[in-house]
Prior knowledge:
The protein is mainly beta. Among the domains are: 15-99, Immunoglobulin-like (Sandwich); 106-270, 3 Solenoid (Pectate Lyase C-like), CATH 2.160.20; 489-562.
Amino acid sequence: AGSVSGSVTALTGAELNILSELNIRVLDQGDPVEGAVISVDGAVASTDAQGRLSTTATARQVTDSSETLGGIKNINLQIGSFTDFVTWDSTTSFDHTFMASRISSGTLDEWLVLESQWSPYFLDSDLIVGQSGTLSLDDGVSLRISEGHTITVEGTMNAGDATLSSTGQGARWGGLHLGSLTSSTIDLSATSLLEASPAVTVSHYGQLTATGSEFARSSGADPLIVISSGSNASIELISSALYDAGSGCINSFATAGHLVLSDVSVSNCNGVGVWARQTHLDVDGLTLSGDMTHGFELTAVTGSMNNIDASEFTGTGYIGWLESIDGSFAVSDLNGTVGGMGGLAGINNRFIDLSEIQVTGAPAIDFDETAGIISGLILNGQGAGTAFASHHGRTMDALIVEQMIAANYAVAIDLHADIEDGSVAPIVFRSPDLLSSVALSADHYSARIEGGSIIGEVAASGDIQVNLVDVVAEQTSAFDDAVIIMWTTFNFDAQVNSMPIAVLFEIDTIGHDPEHSSQSEGTSVLVEIPTSVAVETSTTILASMDITATATGLPVQVMTVNYTAGMNTT
């Protein structure tokens, strides 16, 4: 071996061969590894008792007719299922040391520290960290685990900026399993769990905390994180990312434990981003993006979900699906773009609590058989589709929607129920701002709109009543026994010698058929009076109203007030 710089001229029949030397050494935590298989561009040999292997290659060959230089060669190491590789430019000699530090399988009952100087490590069978054991991975450590094998933590595991992955070539290890003891603890900080299927399994008790970590590349039908039925563990993910899952990123079912997500991103989950049923959730900061079905699918959960960024959501389903929510779960501060099926949707919710929701696209909101309260809606249309849909409702409890803005849709509000549904509690909209071709379409589903602004048609069908209180719709259509009534709130006040007194007010309208009568008692009362009543064949307008005031010991007072649009209502 050697080198010659500059040009070389070989005379007729002459030949110059310069060789480069390769020296390989394989160590297991400083100890030589005998019998490690080394392959150099297909040529296979094994290390000796000192863990060494040497060979040569042509670095430069000059003949009287040509000159050939060495090139890039692949050097592969294999010890069982563990593999590693490095490249060698054979124009020069090369010395390389492979680290292949084997971790003993079985039960660990002491403190084992994996140091970066001996990395990478490999594990070719299952490892149990016993109750008295501790497994620590220092920053810079790479631990590779064979196909299907797991690390179960009954004691303590902590890892820094380390990587736990498979042995490559499409293999998937079995992930971390939180143990069966309440003291079982896994603490990850800037740790990468890759190519595990699933990455984390929680079946019993204990605590898992992951900060600044990543979970990626499960396969087949496995999510990245599985929290099993009957478990009671505390799981907390902070500033972490989950992506490229086999079938969903987080799956939690019927657990008595606690799942906390803080500034977590999920993407390309190939299933539901966060799927939870009968779980207590505390989410503050969740980013949804990439290929998935629903961003989140939650059934009978408790807790809260805040600060959801779904602006780059491209799933085939909904941003979020809520089912069987019973008043102990709230969603707030969500900003997103609809998926293939829509924005937020759900069914069979006795009481939902949504606030500060902004959705672009259609349908933005779509709930069936749902009651509760929704406030602070901003729905941005793109010229077509429906902004807000509620179907079938509930018999006893109403859905109340406050401060809703919906613009640039074909239909702002779509309500539907079937005759077979029986009595459905009217839906209530407070101070909406609606700008659509059809502001409200109600089919067998009564509604009440209080204040706000309506630009667009209000249409109703079936034996229902749509009440527009202190808001005007310029175009109304009523069909099949539907009634659309516009109401104005009047303030009635009674005084004697400029002092307010309590009286009984009786108000009778003139101009409707049939007329409307109402009573209210007090010193100063607010009373809703129908100013317009539209049915399929006609519309009547309030002409005037007779007001009778009765108080004990005082003469009855009667006043007739003529009605005109925009009049003083006090």
